[in-house]
Design a protein that fits this description.
- By secondary structure, the chain is mainly alpha-helical.
- Helices cover 73% and strands 0% of the residues.
- The protein has 7 helices and no strands.
- Helix 3 crosses helix 6.
- The longest helix has 22 residues, at 3-24.
Length: 158
């Protein structure tokens, strides 16, 4: 993978990377750190990509692994006061933004492995693709997605 190809591929997939990272970030500063960490890890490991799966599947795996590892490390750290800067990856009107913020707050309350599943679902990945990325059966993906949608509705609607 050439450097130019790598840069363009990361840029093409940045919205996806940002959505996944947003679900694991505690605040905007943490989001920036995660995005940078994912980009660095993709660069470090791009030579190990063997082509056994789609490149997008590999990006998902790397992003999820970085986010889950980061989340585990953060559980051991003390929460800091966030700076009032924002990354807005999508142009949203106020009502859409409010709904999206509620959705992400709900997602953050899920277990780490469940966050990965619901994020893949929200990205319109097929159950087969989700199965490949997560290393679980297609049937298990279907069951988990349905349970998580119900759980997320409960969290968001109170």
């Amino acid at each position: 993978m050439s450097e130019d190809f790598f840069k363009s591929y990361v840029e093409e997939n940045m919205p996806l990377i940002m959505h996944i990272c947003r679900a694991y970030a505690r605040n905007e500063e943490s989001l920036k750190d995660l995005i940078q960490e994912v980009s660095l890890q993709l660069w470090r490991s791009h030579t190990s990509f063997q082509g056994k799966s789609q490149l997008s599947t590999w990006v998902y795996r790397v992003t999820l692994n970085v986010c889950m590892s980061h989340s585990k490390r953060m559980k051991r750290k003390v929460e800091t006061v966030p700076l009032e800067t924002r990354i807005d990856s999508v142009d949203e009107n106020d009502s859409d933004k409010e709904q999206i913020d509620k959705l992400y707050e709900g997602i953050k309350q899920l277990k780490e492995s469940d966050r990965a599943i619901i994020l893949l679902y929200l990205e319109d990945k097929s159950y087969k693709e989700m199965s490949e990325i997560l290393g679980i059966t297609v049937t298990n993906v279907g069951v988990k997605v349905n349970r998580l949608k119900e759980k997320l509705k409960e969290i968001i609607n109170g």
